[in-house]
């Protein structure tokens, strides 16, 4: 029998395919992404991660089993180390903003709303694409790039294509599958909606960075 994650990842594969085809990812893979765009992305991502870390901690607090709590709290603190390093490498001397773009604001606000006001299962499904999509994208780029020695964004690619991240992603999937296996069909439907929406927001996050999205007024 297939598990929840297998079913939902197949159903939302079209979003992943759109991400692979997005010019942000194509240019990142080719090492041709403009520094300005990448800087905008990293800047927004550091704003995103500062909030995402709290969202993961809240998810951990809501888990009933100690190992699950430990995993999410560990993932939350892990973000502080890994991301600080990435952002230090890539944001030195560059212009920084503390203003979230509309899409960044939308994504963190959405996750925060789901995790704080909906069921634990729905919250788990909402935070999962941040793990799984980055792993898929990291693996995809590693498997398809032909410029490993000379891509200025290789450190970023290695972070998400690496084994350490894969291990963490597997645990997040396992915990979510475990809760899904005991959830009602109605709750599964909510989980599916949350996973799909968060996956779309991942696409939008890259798209908004590529366009250096600004507030309309
Ligand atoms: C927007 C976004 N989603 C997921 C990750 C992976 O942690 C990230 N760094 N940024």
From TrEMBL:
Tell me the function of this protein: Catalyzes an amino-pyrimidine hydrolysis reaction at the C5' of the pyrimidine moiety of thiamine compounds, a reaction that is part of a thiamine salvage pathway.
InterPro entries in UniProt: Haem_Oase-like_multi-hlx, Thiaminase-2/PQQC, Thiaminase_II, Thiamine_Salvage_TenA
List the source organism: Flammeovirga agarivorans
Q: One GO MF term, please?
A: thiaminase activity
Q: Which PANTHER family match?
A: BIFUNCTIONAL TH2 PROTEIN, SI:CH1073-67J19.1-RELATED
For the biological process aspect of GO, one term held by this record is: thiamine biosynthetic process
Cite the entry's keywords alphabetically.
Answer: Hydrolase, Thiamine biosynthesis
Q: Name one GO cellular component term.
A: cytosol
Q: Which Gene3D superfamilies match?
A: Heme oxygenase-like (1.20.910.10)
Which pathway is this protein engaged in? Cofactor biosynthesis; thiamine diphosphate biosynthesis
Q: What is this protein called?
A: Aminopyrimidine aminohydrolase
Task: Write down a Pfam family by its short name.
Answer: TENA_THI-4
Start and end residues of each Thiaminase-2/PQQC domain: 13-211
């Amino acid at each position: 029998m297939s598990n929840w994650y297998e079913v939902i990842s197949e159903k939302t594969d079209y979003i992943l395919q759109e991400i692979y085809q997005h010019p942000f990812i194509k240019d990142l893979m080719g090492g041709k992404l403009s520094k300005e765009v990448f800087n905008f992305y990293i800047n927004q991502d550091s704003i995103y991660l500062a909030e995402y870390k709290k969202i993961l901690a809240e998810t951990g607090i809501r888990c009933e089993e100690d190992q699950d709590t430990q995993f999410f709290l560990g993932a939350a603190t892990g973000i502080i180390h890994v991301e600080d390093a990435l952002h230090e490498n890539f944001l030195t001397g560059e212009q920084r903003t503390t203003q979230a773009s509309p899409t960044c604001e939308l994504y963190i606000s959405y996750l925060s709303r789901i995790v704080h006001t909906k069921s634990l299962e729905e919250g788990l499904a909402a935070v999962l694409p941040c793990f799984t999509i980055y792993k898929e994208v990291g693996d995809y780029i590693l498997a398809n790039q032909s410029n490993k020695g000379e891509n200025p964004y290789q450190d970023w690619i290695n972070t998400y294509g690496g084994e350490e991240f894969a291990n963490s992603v597997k645990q997040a999937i396992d915990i979510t599958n475990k809760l899904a296996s005991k959830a009602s069909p109605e709750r599964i439907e909510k989980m599916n909606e949350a996973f799909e929406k968060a996956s779309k927001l991942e696409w939008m996050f890259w798209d908004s960075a590529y366009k250096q999205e600004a507030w309309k007024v």
